[in-house]
Design goal:
globular, 36% helix, alpha+beta
């Protein structure tokens, strides 16, 4: 598990999308075009899992819950599957933790990139990523 302590002026929504995007992008380096699957999201108030056979998407209600937890510096945990890799990401306040099951280099790459991006005024996030994890946004 790798940790990153950061100081970011970004709002919680931008932090969330930046973290998810770069987790996806860096994992894709080894896992290719495998689907980015949110398997579980845990906030202070609720646990979200996909309903079979549907995929878990970030609905407005889920995003609101995540953002509220982030704004209150409460932990938010994501479990993500992509190809053969299973990633656990947790954000609490200004600390981000990333754990991968198979390829520890991915942890280093995610942390290194997020260390750069979370400190930017305008982090780099591909616009085509948002519709893949959120419905109709």
């Amino acid at each position: 598990m790798k940790n990153l302590e950061f100081d970011s002026a970004l709002d919680s929504r931008k932090k969330l999308m930046t973290i998810l995007f770069w987790t996806n992008r860096k994992t894709a380096r080894t896992e290719g075009c495998a689907p980015f699957l949110l398997k579980k999201i845990v906030t202070d108030k609720d646990t979200y899992t996909p309903e079979d056979p549907k995929l878990l998407k970030l609905t407005n209600a889920i995003i609101d819950d995540i953002l509220e937890s982030m704004d209150e510096n409460k932990p938010v945990k994501f479990e993500i599957a992509m190809g053969n890799e299973y990633i656990t990401t947790e954000i609490e306040g200004n600390i981000l933790s990333v754990n991968t099951e198979n390829n520890l280099e991915i942890e280093d790459e995610i942390i290194e990139k997020l260390d750069q991006e979370l400190n930017k005024k305008y982090p780099s996030v591909c616009e085509s990523f948002k519709p893949r994890v959120t419905p109709n946004e």
